[in-house]
Amino acid sequence: MKDTRLPLIQSVALVSALAFAIGAANTYAQDPPPPTASEIVYDRQTAGMTHPKAVYQPTPEYANGPRRKKIQGNVFLSMIVTADGTVRDPQVTQSLDKDLDKKAVECVKKWRFEPATRDGKPVAMRVVVEVNFHLY
Predict the structure, then answer these.
(1) Which of 10, 64, 71, 87 has the highest count of CB atoms within 10 angstroms of its CB?
(2) CATH classification of the domain holding 72
(3) Do residue 119 and residue 56 come from a single domain?
């Protein structure tokens, strides 16, 4: 008599491994987690604070559609500069064109800052930045 339990056990193990791999892949594809409740994000300068200073600001890529339409101007974004100088949660506050807005968000995610400080310690701060799109 043939034992049919072994192929069934192998199938269950394979399905479990695939489910784990898919879950792990989805974990890495997501945006970084939101700030914890213990992380304070300042939204304006108070006594003893400095603003973040940009140390790396690559130029945004121009989207082809707006280039053909000769759309120029500025996109304004609100974002958090974290205590380690990276950008988190960029959001368009003043739009120019949906394609250029998307390019602006992609670009500022690459920016790096000297973080804001409060009493000499790095802190997170919400700032508004302007991304320029001009045809030369």
Answers:
(1) 87
(2) 3.30.2420.10
(3) yes
**Predicted model pTM:** 0.69
Contact 80, 87 (CB under 8 A): yes
Q: Is 5 helix (H, G, I), strand (E, B) or coil?
A: helix
Residue 46 belongs to domain spanning: 38-133
20 and 44 co-located in one domain = no
Same domain, residue pair 44 and 99: yes
Look up residue 95 and give its two tokens: 């739009």
